[in-house]
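User: Could you go from structure to sequence for me? I need the amino acid at each position, not a summary. Structure tokens:
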């Protein structure tokens, strides 16, 4: 109830106000995946204030100051005015819970100091996942988990064993084998989801933290190829088996679009030399490309890496 009174205290109007909360009109949605029980720290750049729907027009004094508020008081959410013409960022610090918890919250953006009407409302989802670290070279790696099994959402994880639906033993452990073959150095998060195929419910999720470094280059070659070389150019390089016994080797490259092998695998006797046939795809422009050739053993573990610098 709201009362309007004159100076003597006599009411001149009485209002009964009924408040009906309405769901937010969400302008943008963000979804983050992060290791469980860790802090997510994120900086998001705000768009220019005049591009926001509902922003005031022709404000005296130039750009308005922006304010942000979060629906969860336990989340640190702040922004600072960096001066005229400078971009403005929102900083978030969110404490993640145990896996597979999903934290949901809203961030409101205002251009008035009274926080009367938000010009934007953003919705956030934070998925807390089980984390596992994997560090490898750029050629290949393998990790073994005593878990229930999963399927991948990233192309960096081409092989999972078992790769289809499987039955979990009662009170038992199912081993999951993951083959990773990244083609460049860097870091990447890969999400693994365990799904019940009958109810289509998410049982558990994992976050694979992959950090890949460049392999050690044992040999380097430099070749020159003509631009517009027809169907491509053939070259040969040699590899010597350093072991006294016969070995089986597999070949792969970080640039399959530029290089193909005559044979993807070969067997060579102990101490003997094998000639690797290379076929380079034609290029229509002048430039230089660095191509890696990985020589892996019978378990697909990297033995050596050659580097070919191609000058077109």
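Assistant: Here is the amino acid at each position, in order:
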């Amino acid at each position: 109830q709201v009362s309007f009174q004159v100076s003597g205290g006599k009411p001149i109007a009485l209002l009964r106000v009924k408040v009906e909360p309405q769901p937010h009109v969400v302008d943008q949605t963000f979804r983050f995946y992060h290791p469980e029980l860790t802090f997510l720290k994120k900086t998001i750049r705000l768009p220019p204030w005049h591009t926001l729907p509902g922003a005031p027009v022709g404000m005296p004094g130039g750009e308005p100051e922006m304010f942000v508020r979060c629906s969860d008081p336990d989340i640190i959410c702040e922004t600072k005015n960096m001066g005229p013409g400078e971009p403005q960022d929102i900083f978030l610090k969110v404490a993640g819970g145990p896996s597979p918890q999903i934290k949901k919250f809203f961030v409101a953006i205002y251009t008035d100091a009274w926080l009367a009407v938000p010009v934007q409302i953003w919705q956030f989802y934070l998925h807390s996942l089980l984390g596992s670290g994997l560090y490898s070279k750029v050629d290949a790696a393998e990790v073994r988990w005593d878990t229930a099994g999963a399927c991948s959402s990233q192309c960096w994880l081409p092989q999972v064993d078992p790769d289809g639906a499987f039955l979990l033993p009662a009170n038992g452990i199912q081993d999951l084998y993951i083959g990773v073959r990244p083609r460049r150095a860097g870091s990447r998060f890969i999400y693994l989801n365990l799904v019940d195929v009958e109810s289509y419910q998410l049982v558990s999720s994992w976050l694979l933290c992959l950090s890949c470094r460049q392999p050690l280059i044992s040999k380097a070659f430099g070749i020159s190829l003509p631009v517009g070389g027809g169907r491509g150019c053939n070259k040969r390089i040699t590899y010597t088996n350093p072991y006294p016994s016969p070995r089986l080797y597999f070949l792969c490259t970080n640039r399959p679009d530029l290089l193909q092998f005559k044979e993807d695998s070969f067997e060579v006797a102990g101490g003997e030399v094998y000639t690797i046939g290379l076929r380079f795809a034609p290029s229509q422009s002048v430039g230089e490309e660095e191509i890696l050739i990985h020589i892996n053993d019978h378990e697909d573990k990297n033995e050596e890496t050659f580097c070919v610098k191609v000058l077109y």
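One structural detail worth keeping in mind: The CA atoms of residues 194 and 204 lie 5 Å apart.
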